[in-house]
Amino acid sequence: MVSSLQQSTLPRLDSLTGLRWWAAFAVFLFHVRNFVTLPGPVSELVRFGNFGVAFFFILSGFVLTWSWRENVGIGTFYWRRFARIYPLHLITLLLAIPVFYSFAPDPAQTWVKPVDWAILLLCLLMIQGWSRDATVMFAGNPASWTLTVEAFFYALHPFMTKVLRLLTGRGALVTAVGIVALSIIGRVIMVTDPTGWFASLPWPILRLNEFIVGMCLAWAFRAGWRVRLSVWVPASLIVGYLLGISVLDRFTLTQPLQLLMAQFASEVLLVLFALLICCAASSDLRTTRSPAFRSRFIVMLGEWSYAFYLIHATLIYLTLEIVGHRVSGLTGLLWIAVLLVGSIAAAGALHVWIERPVERFLRAWQNRKTAARQLAREARASEPTA
Description:
By secondary structure, the chain is mainly α. The protein has one domain (3-379). 71% of the residues lie in helices and 1% in strands. The chain contains 16 helices and two strands. It has helices spanning 14-32, 40-46, 52-66, 74-100, 117-124, 134-137, 145-164, 169-192, 203-206, 208-222, 232-248, 255-263, 265-285, 291-294, 296-323, 330-382, and strands at residues 101-102, 113-114. A two-stranded parallel sheet has the order 1-2. Helix 3 (52-66) runs parallel beside helix 10 (208-222) and helix 15 crosses helix 16 (330-382).
């Protein structure tokens, strides 16, 4: 065991919180296209905003492993994860149902579906993401399918950590590289057999590679590994790669390259996102100034990003139902700004008044129960034997 793994406290990595905001913002831009027709070049780029979800999965593995403590039991870990994600999931699901569901047999809007209580129960239990049927997977609050994936990751994390503890920092890095190699092999299988069994696996299984890579990199960081590279290097590579996919298909000679880049975008971005997270974490540990990721305002938005992610699609489609589709231009940009500000305001309210206080209450309740059980055990142990 590397000595640095025994630290009782590890530094807070504010840049990672800031990066959560930018990933959530990318997902917002991806969804807002359904409300406002964006100019061609802009639309071409923001259509990749859905990859912000992959960033969340990698970041989740990194943050959970970075903050892991040996003295936190598995029951406590699960309860804290529940307290972190479920209350806000429940509230945003209830807010989404009137927007995306109707009791009318033939709703007027294409995105509105007849009420199906069985499917909504799956959403309530956060298991709708195990289905590849879009009607089920995107049911309830459409954004919440990712919570199925996260819940699966949370369930596995304590057990995967037992395996990580057997690795040195270098071993964790080698494992991360091996997972990327397996991801590439898996992509080749899906490209050659897009309707085969492997391509049809549930998303929690297919996205597990992203979570494990994040875990491995965090373990290497706990062992002292660092990256001496500016965060702008991977950030620029990410933008450049996505621009390449958008531009190269316009030229006959580069279309084969563009197709190859598009087919393996998930694997390339897995590497680049992981590098971005490592660069940002290294920058924080060196206390390097980074206004784009570590400013107080960006970190605050990062703290609100979970609420922002869960509420923004509901607000977009609610506005679409009220005012109709908007075209690009100044009016379209103004509507995007209104939706962005409104989503941020709603996220802030949800975070301050629901997410944070309910999580604190649930964690305090669990802590009291744990303390009471500990006192009872100590009392029984101190009783004299007959």
